[in-house]
């Protein structure tokens, strides 16, 4: 598996199919093909641009036929969304793994730092990937969908993590939006600097300013 597959792999714990059964072997093979398609698509999107990449090129890079590709994805936009969903899975799993009594804002900072480090360790140009997703006008709808999904899934986990007497759906949703907005602000600063330095640095600075300015812990 090529390095960039670490981004698109679903990172939540799921029950693995029985490797000794025929259905289990078939499911594992199908998942490998699906991952290969996403991996190939993501590498090509970053290298030559989303609009310039054709479905045929993705199929060739994944070493499958065009017909096989369409069994898994109807459009190249679906390939990109599946890759983005892998990021959502990573954020949700990372938040669930944070210490139960940790301050929500600190938990959000840590999961976004973990995501930024995951992108760096993936072996692809994380700056080019981020720039493509967040700056290409043709991908605006996918970027908006990605952030909306982040907000929903983070809010759900935040709500579950709060003590029963302090649970607030509105508060959890608001903090999730603030957290994702802070990530986007830090990302904007990093992109404006053309990827110089680390995204982590901008995240720490942005969340520190957030904590100092509005004290989001008072939402609960």
UniProtKB/TrEMBL annotation:
The keyword Nucleotidyltransferase does not apply. SUPFAM superfamilies: Homeodomain-like. It comes from the Bacteria. InterPro entries: DNA-bd_HTH_TetR-type_CS, Homeodomain-like_sf, HTH-type_TetR-like_transc_reg, HTH_TetR, MftR_C. Residues 54-73 bind DNA. It holds the Pfam family TetR_C_14. This is HTH tetR-type domain-containing protein.
């Amino acid at each position: 598996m090529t390095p960039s597959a670490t981004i698109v792999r679903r990172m939540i714990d799921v029950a693995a199919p029985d490797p000794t059964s025929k259905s289990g072997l078939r499911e594992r093979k199908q998942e490998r093909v699906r991952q290969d398609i996403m991996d190939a698509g993501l590498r090509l999107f970053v290298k030559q641009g989303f609009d310039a990449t054709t479905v045929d090129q993705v199929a060739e890079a994944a070493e499958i036929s065009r017909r096989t590709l369409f069994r898994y994805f109807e459009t190249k936009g679906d390939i990109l969304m599946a890759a983005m969903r892998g990021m959502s899975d990573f954020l949700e799993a990372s938040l669930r793994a944070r210490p139960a009594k940790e301050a929500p804002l600190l938990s959000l900072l840590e999961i976004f730092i973990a995501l930024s480090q995951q992108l760096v360790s993936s072996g692809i140009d994380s700056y080019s990937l981020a720039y493509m997703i967040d700056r290409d006008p043709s991908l605006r709808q996918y970027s908006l969908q990605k952030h909306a999904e982040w907000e929903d899934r983070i809010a759900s986990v935040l709500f579950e993590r709060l003590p029963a007497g302090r649970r607030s759906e509105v508060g959890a949703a608001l903090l999730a939006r603030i957290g994702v907005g802070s990530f986007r602000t830090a990302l904007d600063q990093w992109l404006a600097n053309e990827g110089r330095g680390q995204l982590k640095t901008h995240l720490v600075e942005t969340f520190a300013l957030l904590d100092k300015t509005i004290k989001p812990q008072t939402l609960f």
